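User: I'll paste a sequence; please echo it back and then give the predicted structure.

Assistant: Echoing your sequence first, then the prediction.
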Amino acid sequence: MADPLLWHRLQFAFTIVYHYLFPQLTMGLALLIVVLKGLALRRGGEQYATAARFWVRIFGLNFAIGVVTGLPMEFQFGTNWARFTQLTGGVIGQTLALEGLFAFMLESSFLAMLVWGEKKLGPKKHFAAAVALFFGSWLSGVFIVTTNAFMQHPVGYLRGADGVFALEDFWTYVLNPWALAQYAHNQMASLVTASFVVTAVGAFWLLRGTHLEQARLNLKVGTTTALIASLAVAFPTGDLQAKLVAEHQPAALAAMEGRFESGRRAEIHLIGQPNVAARRLDNPIGVPAVLSFLAFGRFNAEVVGLNDIPEAEWPTSIELLYYSFHVMVGLGTLFIGLMGLAVLFRWRGWLEKSPWLLWALMLAFPFPYIANTAGWMTAELGRQPWLVYGLLRTVDGASPLVHAGDTAFSLIGFTGLYLVLGLAFLFLIGREVLHGPAGAHAEVTHA
């Protein structure tokens, strides 16, 4: 209990992991709602409009809980991380303010139009509202990812003699190469989450024999989008992100792979257990030269190991970083295989006759949440021990006046509050799914 920094980090980790369960779905759903509304407008099919209405309701519930769970993180910048905010607020405050005042307001305003304004707006204006909702949702992601990218790879700043950061070039800051790659990777990952959820609902309805037309539509849109997005997460977005880590954060790359020795033709490890005390990876199973190629585009490229990096610059939790990275990559690979199989079966007309595959699709929806969480843990743990990489250490950003007891007490409070919110959310979402899509095409026939 004596280390305030540990409790500050635990509290922020808990609140941000919980909060991000909701935006990762809404960002992906925003695009799918535009697709469904566009198909309804172009083809005149009521089934598309019905599907869009259902997912707008799901979007609204996620958005509401996301807003509530996002507020405590903003306050933590001024309480637990006051020194960090004091030093970097002149830079990251720009994008955080834009996210709150512009993107959030845009998103919430057009969500209200989508939920309550369909009859008044008419089909074309209602579609335009869906596009605006998508724009606001993804613009929020731009500002948040840009803020995080500055912490990963700081650009466009000046630093005074007192250590305070100031923004020198706004466009250099916003167009940070790290931000562009990270944003593309993050948005494709959010689309994976949304498409898996859409697929799972379709599989659930089909297995129950209810809302069959909507079930087939969800499976068609969900599996197709999930396959495309899962491939895009791996390449090119994930590949580009990995190359940036290799270039700018060599300690993170080495820890992600449990690599202690430097050398050429570095192998990528499929499995193994990092033994930090002995400085080795126990029981490794690897593929030679693949890590060199993925990191630098050459099979004979040299990859630096942790032994050639000062220990003070090592990530502070190598074991957790290693397993987070491998969980993310492993699940991402399984996503491609599962959705590739689902698309093949649907194309051949076998999907509805394969209850085992429908069960797999229905039960798979939590795993993109796990993969996204593991991905963000990889990024944040890899950046340690820095708050702003190479410039400001985490230990120097914490608030000196907030002690461990205060933070632990408030963390217990957040845990209880979020448990209640989570149960209420699951109840409301479950009720919507069981009720099914509202409208003339929400048939309740049984197969």
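The first strand starts at residue 157 and ends at 159. The CA atoms of residues 2 and 404 lie 6 Å apart.
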